[in-house]
Amino acid sequence: MWFFARDPVRDFPFELSPDPPEGGPPGPWVLHRGRKKATGSPVSIFVYDVKPGADEQTQVAKAAFKRLKTLRHPNILAYIDGLETDRCLHVVTEAVTPLKMYLKERAEAGGLKELELSWGLHQIVKALSFLVNDCSLIHNNVCMAAVFVDRAGEWKLGGLDYMYSSQGNGGGPPRKGVPELEQYDPPELADGSGRAVREKWSADMWRLGCLIWEVFNGPLPRAAALRNPGKIPKSLVPHYCELVGANPKVRPNPARFLQNCRAPGGFMNNRFVETNLFLEEIQIKEPAEKQKFFQELSKSLDSFPEDFCRHKVLPQLLTAFEFGSAGAVILTPLFKVGKFLNAEEYQQKIIPVVVKMFSSTDRAMRIRLLQQMEQFIQYLDEPTVNTQIFPHVVHGFLDTNPAIREQTVKSMLLLAPKLNEANLNVELMKHFARLQAKDDQGPIRCNTTVCLGKIGSYLSASTRHRVLISAFSRATKDPFAPSRVAGVLGFAATHNLYSMNDCAHKILPVLCGLTVDPEKSVRDQAFKAIRSFLSKLESVSEDPTQLAEVEKDVHAASSPGMGGGAASWAGWAVTGVSSLTSKLIRAHPAAAPAETNVPQRPTAEGPPTPAPTPVPATPASPGHWETQEEGTDTAEDGGAADRWDDEDWGSLEQEAESVLAQQEDWSPGGQASRAGQTSNLAAKSPESDWSSWEAEGSWEQGWQEPSPPEPPLEGTRLASEYNWGGPEPGDKGDPFAALSARREAGAQLRPDSWGDDNWEGLETESRQGKAELARKKREERRREMEAKRAEKKAAKGPMKLGTRKLD
């Protein structure tokens, strides 16, 4: 039969680090770094090697092993595991660093603050109070070598080798035999006569005074140096002097020493100590106390040590969220502490909590998450954003609280780069369309336009072509002036995403209409944008070879690099309008429409023009940009108000033309053409939408020689004959009144007046032709309906009493 000897050290679940030992307290123990084999978590291992002929030291080491294993207190070194063999003793504790080494490292990094020192000394005194008052034990070894610091900066009392009972059980204090430790003994111990009357804590309190002196002044050279406080803070000096007094009878009990230092103005009466004491008792605090504590915690974290925030505050915050009812108040301190974590720790500790918070229905938590999203968005990966966060965030677009809607819109600036194709180009655009068209808060509509201008570069090419011009054009018609400014700046910020054809045919007409806006800020931005687009068109006109370079981003795939234009306009984003909604909510709690105090855009004086009928745009694909409202009568004017593709240019053109008509008629055929447009607005068909702009030809065709225009009326002067710059004499009437009358009479035009060409060009002719065709179809339909009614009336005979008249 075989017997195999097992090595207990090899089977021990902890292993020593190959790094050299860190040293330890003077005596038999040597401190090593180590780790747990199963998890790799760091630990500290105190090792004692049994030597022959050192039985007294071996007994001291075994007694310390036993004491540390049985004593449990937050301020005493925490025992984890141990190993006792004939050759060695291994004591495994939490990962700690000797205080002497810790102070040296922190001194090289700038030194410890008094706040940290006050809390560290508070912990050591509290541990002594526990030993003396609760356990009737005398530590007998209080010095810097017996104090250790964990990763959170908490001070732990160790060095239990020479501990003995104050009640006389087990004999007197053991002999140390180490000169480095004996220098901390009080002077009464050197008096062999035993005449000194002392309390059981007197010796330990003297040693505590020595520890305080060394913490502030460095290693103690001799006992006489204790008379000079040195760098000890003034608020602590009176209490320190009590500790190192020659009379052991007047040395205070550890509990009374804490009470004296915690008095108003005392060394340990500060916010840091109060925070730590509250965290130690947080499990038994009332919910109202916890709420108040977390609300005030964020203000103090900036002055707290980083290690303390990471390893003590953060676990308590996570526990309060997971098992308590702290709610949204923990978000601010949580994200503030998160700044101290690296990317891996943030993913493990903060992100799971954030994802869970987004599913909460608590409005306060939702709005705080949105407000502080920039602090954690960089740690979120795309799958998490699209599957776990965005589906919850979009509910904010439909919230009845304007503040939540506004913050939801702003958060899209951060979420857009991480959204997939469906969420960004379909789902998000639907919500933006509804907000811009139907939200009753002007600042929210404005911020929607602002946000769209900043995320335009992330949209796909087809979505950009379908959405941007329509959205910014709608914004220019908003009754809220900042929304109109945002629409103009949106065009400018995304100028590189439009073709030259779109710039000339779709964008410039919109911007020109804003040059007569009642708000000067809108007019100023409109003129700037017009000059920018005109210079771009002019540069391509001078050198057509630049066309490919200018339009390189038009059909390019979505890319953050194309946002250079938006980046240069960053100042207009959320800065100018960000606080409007919050101010509005404070001023009008009932969430009244933002336009109530905003002056409406005045219509030009003169004959009223009929309101144009909105024209629904033909969708490029099912379920994209436009959003239909169920249950809305298609005959109502607002039937398509929530679709951004509804290019209702009628109202804008009519308004601009009415203003121009008051001053002077810029086109010889302008009045007749506008009269035709006004009379045929009701006959406008879907074909007269933006497809009519594209039907005019490509960008290159726009620069070809135009077809010969119709000849002007007889007697019409050339453009150079009019006084365009100076004022007309007061007694002279409108020089174009007779011209308009003669044109309506059907006079023939001269074929050689290119300079008097109509400013509306091919667009007006195409629109008039289509309108005429629609008018004829409508007349035919009307005659058919009348014929059918006549037939029905003749077939039924005379009307009976009570029947309804058909027509």
From TrEMBL:
Residues 644-656, 754-763 have a biased composition (Acidic residues). One of its GO terms (biological process) is vesicle-mediated transport. GO terms for molecular function: ATP binding; protein kinase activity. It comes from the Eukaryota. It is found in: Cytoplasm, Cytoskeleton, Microtubule organizing center, Centrosome; Endoplasmic reticulum-Golgi intermediate compartment; Golgi apparatus, cis-Golgi network. GO terms for cellular component: centrosome; COPI vesicle coat; endoplasmic reticulum-Golgi intermediate compartment. Keywords: Coiled coil, Cytoplasm, Cytoskeleton, ER-Golgi transport, Golgi apparatus, Phosphoprotein, Repeat, Transport. Residues 14-35, 588-807 are annotated as: Disordered. Residues 14-314 form the Protein kinase domain. Residues 764-774, 781-794 have a biased composition (Basic and acidic residues). Residues 18-28, 605-619 have a biased composition (Pro residues). Transmembrane segments: none annotated. Coiled coil: none annotated. It holds the Pfam family Pkinase. Belongs to the protein kinase superfamily. PANTHER family: N-TERMINAL KINASE-LIKE PROTEIN, SCY1-RELATED S/T PROTEIN KINASE-LIKE. Regulates COPI-mediated retrograde protein traffic at the interface between the Golgi apparatus and the endoplasmic reticulum. Involved in the maintenance of the Golgi apparatus morphology. This is N-terminal kinase-like protein. It comes from Callorhinus ursinus.
